[in-house]
């Protein structure tokens, strides 16, 4: 399901615009959900589809997480090119209009200042999107829970990656949202020489490392990890092996959200003081439908 070759975020590469995109990523980055299964519709109600405009149409390129009514968290590499963006909330089948979707434009993109598109392994692959309007929360659209600042999950903590990415290396995007079980691989293991080595920093989290992984089109989407019976977004899908999405001992690598809570708060607070629209508190939680154990 989720196979991620080093994320290009330009999943749009599969959609007729490859030459316009940042080709420097093509050989090193791809993301998708490989293996796994079709998710129950709207069972991950904070998942969004990030889409870019080409001509009169919009095309899926990355995932993301709705963290406040007017804010989406995604990967920096997904939005470090100048485009017209929108997010789609409450979606399941991105190839069909099912009547539950909310389509909202992106008014501003905030990329972490230390992000360097030429040094993906440095980290900082995180961005915030300010939406042009607030999302309407309902049974299909809800806010993600974010972890406490600095929290690091133990080895084998249960997590799921979700996305519409390619279902195999070089394969097609999935029209329906997929999910794959990717338990956490602790940093000591993931950064060892026979795994990712020094490419993995402590501000990242690894998950999977076998037949299930992310892939092209999954970039920016959430790593949903279960803690005390609830799901928190602990990771932003960042990169996989250039050799293919589901390589052994090359687990999918995510930006560790808990390492960037202060940055998320600083961005949101500065916008609040400038716009005086509403106060954002990334530590507030909302009630979610619990996911049953798979």
Automatic annotation (TrEMBL):
GO terms for molecular function: metal ion binding; serine-type endopeptidase activity. Residues 1-16 form the signal peptide. Its main location: secreted. GO terms for cellular component: extracellular space. Its EC number is 3.4.21.36. Keywords: Calcium, Disulfide bond, Hydrolase, Metal-binding, Protease, Secreted, Serine protease, Signal. It catalyses: Hydrolysis of proteins, including elastin. Preferential cleavage: Ala-|-Xaa. Residues 33-269 form the Peptidase S1 domain. PROSITE patterns: TRYPSIN_DOM, TRYPSIN_HIS, TRYPSIN_SER. It is an enzyme of class 3 (hydrolase). It comes from the Eukaryota. GO terms for biological process: proteolysis. Its cofactor is Ca(2+). It is found in: Secreted. PANTHER family: CHYMOTRYPSIN-LIKE ELASTASE FAMILY MEMBER, CHYMOTRYPSIN-LIKE ELASTASE FAMILY MEMBER 1. This is pancreatic elastase. It comes from Chanos chanos. The gene is LOC115815304.
């Amino acid at each position: 399901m989720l196979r991620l070759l080093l994320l290009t975020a330009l999943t749009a590469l599969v959609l007729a615009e490859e030459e316009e995109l940042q080709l420097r990523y093509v050989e090193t980055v791809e993301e998708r959900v490989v293996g796994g299964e079709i998710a129950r519709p709207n069972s991950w109600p904070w998942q969004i589809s990030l889409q870019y405009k080409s001509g009169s149409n919009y095309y899926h390129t990355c995932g993301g997480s709705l963290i406040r009514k007017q804010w989406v968290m995604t990967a920096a590499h997904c939005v470090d090119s100048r485009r017209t963006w929108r997010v789609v909330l409450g979606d399941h089948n991105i190839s069909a209009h099912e009547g539950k979707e909310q389509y909202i434009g992106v008014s501003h993109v905030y990329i972490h200042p230390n992000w360097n598109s030429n040094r993906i392994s440095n980290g900082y692959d995180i961005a915030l999107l300010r939406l042009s309007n607030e999302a309407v929360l309902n049974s299909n659209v809800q806010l993600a829970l974010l972890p406490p600042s600095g929290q690091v999950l133990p080895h084998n903590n249960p997590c799921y990656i979700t996305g519409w990415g390619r279902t195999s290396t070089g394969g097609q995007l999935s029209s329906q949202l997929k999910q794959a079980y990717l338990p956490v691989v602790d940093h000591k293991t993931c950064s060892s020489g026979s795994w990712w080595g020094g490419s993995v920093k402590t501000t990242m989290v690894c998950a999977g490392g076998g037949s299930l992984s992310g892939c092209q089109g999954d970039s920016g989407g959430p790593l949903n990890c279960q803690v005390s019976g609830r799901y928190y977004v602990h990771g932003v899908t960042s990169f996989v092996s250039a050799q293919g999405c589901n390589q052994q001992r090359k687990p999918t690598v995510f930006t560790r959200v808990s390492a960037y809570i202060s940055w998320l708060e600083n961005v949101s607070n500065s916008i609040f003081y400038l716009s005086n629209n509403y106060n954002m508190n990334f530590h507030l939680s909302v009630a979610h439908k619990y996911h049953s154990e798979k």
